[in-house]
Write a structure and sequence with these properties.
The chain contains nine helices and no strands. With 146 residues, the chain is mostly helical. The protein has two domains: 10-51; 65-145, Winged helix-like DNA-binding domain superfamily/Winged helix DNA-binding domain (Arc Repressor Mutant, subunit A), CATH 1.10.10. Helix 2 packs across helix 3 (38-60), helix 5 (82-92) packs across helix 7 and helix 6 (97-104) packs across helix 7 (108-122). The longest helix has 23 residues, at 38-60. The chain is elongated and about 65 Å long.
Length: 146
């Protein structure tokens, strides 16, 4: 007879992970308190440690595109896909590629590709120019002269 896999609520998982992170009890003791195996407790603790940076990163970037603090004119977003607009919004806030990737659930390489496509569509050559263009609408001098 096959064992039925138990499902745990996020609150339960958090409680077990916090107990494991406190360090005042051993993993086997925590496992017996919550009717789990030591491996399950260890895995929940490991997940908590891995996901902790993302939790605090989200505090910095909780706003969605609809509440973007910098007004992006239609001319900026006209040719961009919704995902590119999302990446642009976060890049303008000053997050690194890795942070953007973690926040959006994509790899930093994918973020790099999105940034490159955004920069090509907006005809800018650097992230600094991209940010200046989005925030102020300024074009680089070389483009204005030519």
């Amino acid at each position: 007879m096959a064992r039925e896999r138990r499902k745990f609520s996020p609150q339960f998982k958090a409680e077990v992970a916090l107990a494991a992170l406190k360090g005042d009890k051993t993993l086997p003791k925590i496992a017996s308190m919550y009717d789990l195996t030591t491996a399950q407790v260890s895995r929940l603790r490991q997940l908590a440690v891995q996901r902790m940076p993302k939790l605090f990163l989200e505090e910095r970037t909780t706003r969605k595109a609809s509440s973007f603090e910098y007004p992006m004119e239609d001319r900026v977003c006209a040719d961009l896909t919704p995902r590119e607009q999302e990446v642009l919004e976060i890049v303008v806030r000053g997050l690194t590629q890795r942070e953007v990737g973690e926040l959006l659930g994509i790899s930093s390489r994918t973020v790099e590709v999105h940034k490159r496509r955004i920069m090509a569509k907006l005809r800018v050559n650097s992230v600094a120019e991209l940010i200046r263009f989005v925030l102020k609408g300024d074009r680089p001098k070389r483009e204005l002269e030519g």
